[in-house]
Amino acid sequence: MQFTLLMVAAAIAMVGAIFHGYVGGRLYMKNIRESQLVPLTQSLSLVSWQMFTVFLLVSAITFVVVAWQPHLALMAVPLIWANAAGACLFLVLSLMGHSALIKLPGLYLMGLTALLSGLGIAAT
Fold this sequence. Notes:
By secondary structure, this protein is mainly alpha-helical. The protein is built from four helices and no strands.
């Protein structure tokens, strides 16, 4: 059960990383290029966007490693908490007037990843 939960969490994070990095990145950069932001701000915005992609990728890889090597479960704990905190951030900000955030997949992606990986670690 622990293996399956961690592998599903890893798959969600990996699909999220691919979608966020490629599809989302293209849409995001199109909007940024059309904005009035100066080039340096556009570049820094892209770095910020892709850091979340890197976070999703690191989460996916870590959960796969822990699924195959359960004795390394502590490696996943910071990522579980970071995913949970990210989901909470999406929720809180959406309730504080940024209602568009509730429609984005971040809350659900991070929340489900945290839940499944947390259950997977608890099962070890």
